[in-house]
Design goal:
By secondary structure, the chain is an alpha+beta fold. It contains three helices and seven strands; from the N terminus they run ααββαβββββ.
Length: about 140
């Protein structure tokens, strides 16, 4: 296996660990996935979340909203070299609210920028977006990949 293939597999495992950490509501595990200076363009305001603490606050809001959390990442495509990588995929956050209501979630588009930090890969930038109807400005949340 080439170094690039090894890095690609490591990044796939790293991104896959997000689902495991979310299901366990494990903030410490999520902290390990992101760079300390991560910049995140998430679906929730504000326009950007800068730094690991800001990114983790987004996940705390998810944990406060859901009694159980599930996360899927599919169709992940990566471009990797020795120091940096980028990728894109579709993601869906779903679960059960505290009142027992099942929430099927919606598919969003995700883009990841990663960098090598010592002996591990971390997400330095991520962006999540929802397609929108340009005429109304409303998000279109019923699309399937």
């Amino acid at each position: 296996m080439t170094a690039t293939q090894e890095h690609t597999e490591e990044i796939r495992r790293r991104l896959g660990s997000i689902a495991v950490a979310l299901r366990a509501k494990d903030l410490d595990a999520l902290r390990e996935v992101y760079a300390a200076d991560v910049v995140s363009f998430d679906v929730e305001p504000p326009l950007q979340h800068v730094g690991i603490e800001a990114k983790l606050r987004n996940w705390v809001r998810v944990f406060d909203t859901f009694a159980t959390v599930d996360y899927e990442l599919r169709d992940l495509t990566l471009t990797v070299d020795d120091r940096v990588a980028f990728g894109h995929a579709f993601g869906r956050l779903s679960g059960t609210l505290a009142d027992g209501t099942a929430v099927p979630g919606m598919w969003v588009r995700g883009t990841f920028g990663l960098r090598r930090d010592g002996d591990r890969w971390v997400i330095a930038h991520d962006q999540v977006s929802v397609p929108l109807d340009v005429r109304t400005g409303a998000g279109i949340t019923d699309l399937e990949p």
